[in-house]
Amino acid sequence: MSTKAYEGTYNGEQAIWLQAGRYEAVVLPDVGANLIAFRDIEKEYRFLREPALEEMEAFKERPIVHGIPVLFPPNRYEDGKFPWKGNVFQFPVNEPKTGNHLHGFVHNIPWAVENFSSDGNESRVALALRVREGHSVHEFLPFDFTIRLIYTLNEQGLHQQISVHNEGNEAMPCLLAFHTTINAPFAVNSQPSDYTFQMTIGERWALNERMLPTGEYQALSADEEKMKVGGLSPFFEGMDNHYTSVPQNSRNFMALTDAREGIKLVYDVGTSYKQWMIWNNGKTEGFFCPEPQMNLVNAPNVDLPADQIGLVSLEPGEVWEETARLYPIKITK
Hints:
This protein is mostly beta strands. The chain has helices at residues 56-61, 222-227, 306-309; strands spanning 3-10, 13-20, 23-28, 34-40, 45-46, 70-71, 76-78, 81-84, 87-90, 100-102, 112-118, 122-131, 145-154, 157-166, 172-174, 177-178, 182-184, 195-199, 201-207, 213-218, 240-245, 253-258, 263-268, 275-279, 286-293, 312-314, 319-330. An 8-stranded antiparallel beta sheet has the order 11-12-13-14-27-23-22-18, with no helix packed on it.
C-alpha cells in the first residue's frame, strides 16, 4: 500500500497531508489542529465538510462547522462562569443571544506539529498544545497541561488518539469534545434523501431557553427512539439536542448509511464520551454534527454527581486519553 505524510497547503493554509492507499486526510495545525478533510479518493467520497477556497476567511473566523474541531472545554457555560474547587474562572461571554460562553479556547489557535511520518502500513501526524503561564488559554484555565492529538491513516480508515496531561501542581478540569461535521451526502452521486443514521443515544437532557440543561430528562419522541436503531434521516427535524450516550455491544458510535452507494460511514468514539450533542443547522441538508462529548453542557454549574455529568478531574501528573475511528464499510445484505 502506498503511504505518504508531507507538509503542504490547503486552500492557502499550512497543512499536513496524510495518504494511505485509497484514503487521504488533511490537518490544519494553525487552525486548532482541525482535521479538515478525510476522503476516499478512488470513490471520490468526502466524508467531512470542507471549506471552499472562497470560504477560508469565514472558516478561520469561525472554525466550528467544518472538519473535526477540538473543543476544550466544550459547549456552553452559564454567564461564562466556570466554578472549580473553590475558584470561579470567568470565561468571555461570546454567545450574546444566550449570555453564555461557547466552545472553549483551543479550536481557533495554532498547535505545534511534533512530527509526521509514514511507513509501509500507515501515515501519521502528532500535534500538541502546551499551555503554560503566558499562553492565551492559561488566562482562562490557569493550569499547566498539554493536549496531544495523533491522527493515523491506514487501510482501516482514520484513527484519532487524544490525551490531556496535567503537568502542574493542582487538580485541573478535563472537559473535551469534538464538533465533528459530517457530509450527508458524502458521495457525489447521492442525495440527502439517500441517507439514514444511527447513534448510541440514551436519555435526552431538557434544555432551558438559554440552551443550558435543567438537570432533568425529557421524553424521547418516536423518531428519536429510531435514532438508537437506525433508518432515520439526519434531517428529520431541526436538532440542537443533548443526549446521554449508551454504548451498544460495548461500542459508542454514530453510523451514517448511504443506501444508493451501499456504504456505511462508522464513527466509533470510545466510551469515555458520556454525552452526545447533535446539531443539523435547522435541518439544512448537506451536513450535520454528531458531537462526542465528555461532559454535560455547563457541567460545573449543575448540581449532579460528577460521574453522571462527566465532570472529570485530573490530578497532578495524571493523563486522560481516548481514541476514535472514522471508517466506511460496505453494507452486507
